[in-house]
């Protein structure tokens, strides 16, 4: 059987390690030219496929592909927040037409819940349209909400270990700041990503597993009111004279102006105000038992792409799951997502790569387990720490440097010649 071409694309928010999954796919395909032909990348995800903007990765050297290991975010081939929804029949047909036109037999989609749904729908439509296409999902999300409540489909998503490491280090630094400047700034409020699922703010506890800091963690799932938060902070100030508050961006502070992305998700950092500022404003209306005021800070997109904080464990697993996705496509065929499962038979932390049906993970949403929320509802349990601690690793990542600056991969943006007419994605058409 002649080799068939490959399209790989990325969707949703980028991570420290997303490019390492891309690297795993590209390098594994290159090692088997009898099965996999030219490897294309959708320029800015599925939007690039719709527009027939396919980056010919054969124009990029092995050396540059290798540098994807420590190239953060999605600057190499781009990502998008374009969702193929029910009723967008023209978009779905266009994807299949583009894949047919470029002799594509393998489609890899790196992303979270919505991305796995897209991969599943594309695989079904291709089959119905007579295209022999193997569609394979590759997990990616800092929220760690992909999979099932029992952690049997996916133990954790690539990207989460690095954002957890970011908060473990970040909160330790904030504690030094707070300890040294508490006479003037007794309360620091930090807003963490995580719209409604608390794995990211929960990772703040990794900074202080023995609970010696005056640290309070507010997950969206905790159900604590703003008024109760204020009372908790006042009590902490009475006992310690200072307090660090980590609050989920989805914590309920009442109505305020919000913006949404194309998936319909709230974009807290793009909204008129922030949860952190709302909490700070409220705290500063209270009669604090110590001098000074509360102040807040909102780490931006650096919490998901600061490569200096990346977990080496996360980098290795992101690469491994990308390589495994290719093995699944080659041996198992259509309709799977590559997964990471923890090996509980080993005394030390170890994982194995497996697979799960796309239809089971498409649009799945795994919430933070209730039994991992502490009884006081402003902390997490030791069971969560046992789960998350191995994911952040023990060593600092080594990033190649040139003239004192990080050396990131340079992907040659050589596009495949277009075979079809121009196309405007349905969502972007004027009414």
UniProtKB/TrEMBL annotation:
Does the record's keyword annotation contain Transferase? yes
Biological process, per Gene Ontology: fructose 6-phosphate metabolic process
The positions annotated as site (Important for catalytic activity) read 140
Phosphofructokinase domain sequence ranges: 5-327
GO MF term set: 6-phosphofructokinase activity; diphosphate-fructose-6-phosphate 1-phosphotransferase activity; metal ion binding
Q: Which PANTHER family match?
A: ATP-DEPENDENT 6-PHOSPHOFRUCTOKINASE 1
Name listed for the protein in its UniProt record: Pyrophosphate--fructose 6-phosphate 1-phosphotransferase
Whichever gene encodes this chain, its name is pfp
């Amino acid at each position: 059987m002649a080799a068939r071409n490959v399209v790989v694309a990325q969707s949703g928010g980028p991570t420290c390690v997303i490019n390492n999954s891309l690297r795993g796919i590209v390098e594994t395909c290159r090692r088997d030219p009898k099965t996999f032909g030219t490897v294309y990348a959708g320029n800015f995800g599925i939007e690039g496929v719709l527009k027939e903007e396919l980056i010919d990765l054969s124009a990029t050297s092995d050396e540059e592909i290798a540098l994807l290991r420590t190239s953060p975010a999605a600057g190499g081939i781009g990502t998008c927040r374009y969702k193929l929804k029910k009723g967008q029949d023209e978009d779905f047909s266009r994807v299949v037409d583009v894949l047919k036109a470029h002799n594509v037999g393998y489609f890899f989609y790196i992303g979270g819940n919505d991305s796995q749904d897209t991969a599943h729908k594309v695989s079904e439509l291709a089959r119905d349209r007579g295209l022999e296409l193997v569609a394979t999902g590759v997990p990616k999300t800092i929220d760690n909400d992909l999979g099932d409540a029992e952690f049997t489909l996916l133990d954790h998503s690539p990207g989460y270990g690095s954002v957890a490491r970011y908060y473990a280090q970040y909160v330790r630094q904030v504690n030094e700041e707070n300890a040294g400047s508490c006479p003037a700034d007794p309360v620091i409020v930090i807003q963490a990503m995580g719209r409604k699922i608390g794995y990211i703010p929960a990772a703040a506890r990794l900074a202080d597993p023995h609970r010696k800091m005056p640290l309070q963690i507010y997950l969206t799932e905790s159900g604590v009111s703003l008024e109760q938060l204020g009372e908790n902070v006042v009590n902490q100030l009475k006992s310690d004279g200072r307090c660090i508050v980590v609050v989920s961006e989805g914590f309920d502070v009442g109505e305020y102006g919000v913006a949404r992305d194309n998936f319909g998700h709230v974009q807290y950092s793009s909204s008129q105000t922030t949860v952190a500022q709302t909490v700070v404003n409220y705290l500063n209306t209270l009669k604090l038992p110590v001098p000074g005021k509360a102040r807040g800070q909102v780490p931006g997109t650096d919490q998901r792409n600061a490569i200096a904080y990346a977990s080496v464990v996360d980098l290795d697993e992101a690469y491994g799951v990308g390589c495994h996705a290719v093995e699944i496509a080659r041996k198992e065929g259509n309709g799977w997502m590559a997964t990471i499962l923890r090996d509980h038979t080993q005394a030390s932390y170890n994982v194995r790569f497996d697979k799960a049906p796309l239809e089971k993970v498409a649009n799945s949403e795994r919430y933070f387990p209730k039994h991992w929320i502490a009884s006081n509802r402003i902390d997490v349990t030791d069971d969560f720490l046992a789960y998350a601690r191995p994911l952040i690793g023990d060593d600092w990542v080594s990033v190649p440097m040139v003239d004192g600056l990080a050396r990131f991969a340079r992907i040659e943006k050589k596009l495949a010649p277009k075979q079809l007419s121009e196309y405007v994605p349905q969502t972007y058409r004027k009414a």
